[in-house]
Every structure is written in C-alpha cells, then in structure tokens.
Design brief:
By secondary structure, the chain is an alpha+beta fold. It has 2 helices and 6 strands. It has a single domain, classed as SH3 type barrels. The longest helix has 9 residues. It holds the Pfam family FeoA.
C-alpha cells in the first residue's frame, strides 16, 4: 500500500555531518537574520556539505567554509541531496 517514507527537505540545523544539500529559502521575517544570511552569500540554489554541528554549524561551500549560529541555521531550509 505504501512505498516507504523519505525526507528530502529540512532545516539546516537538523542535518548531520557529511550530509549535502541545496539552500531553498530562509523562513523568517526578522530583518537582522535575513541580512546575515544574505551577507554570508547563502542564497537559494547554494550547494553545501555540513562539516560540523556543535557549537555552531559549519558548512563547506565552493568559496570555502562558513560558520553559522544555530539560530540562523534553524531558519534556513534546504533540500537534502544525498540519502
């Protein structure tokens, strides 16, 4: 009847080390957070790999590594590309 369940999207905060994804959107109305996300270059379509989750989220992009606070990572929604 059912063919299984697969999650293909998530908040960046919930990804595990080594998972890869593509940024889809930022889910906040807080202009401070939106400006920080934009200033980091984290726009829709940006491909990344998670390198660290604690104490901050560290992602690897083509341009290099970026450290993101948990608060910002919680508001960034991504499509997971490796399952």
């Amino acid at each position: 009847m059912f063919n299984g369940f697969n999650v293909t999207g998530s908040s960046l905060e919930l990804l595990k080390i080594g998972e890869q994804g593509i940024i889809q959107f930022c889910n906040t109305q807080d202009e401070k957070i939106l400006n920080q996300v934009i200033s980091l270059g984290l726009t829709p379509g940006t491909y990344f790999t998670v390198e660290q989750q604690f104490p901050n989220v560290v992602i690897n992009l083509r341009q290099g590594r970026i450290k993101i606070s948990k608060e910002i990572a919680r508001n960034i929604y991504v499509r997971i590309v490796n399952r």
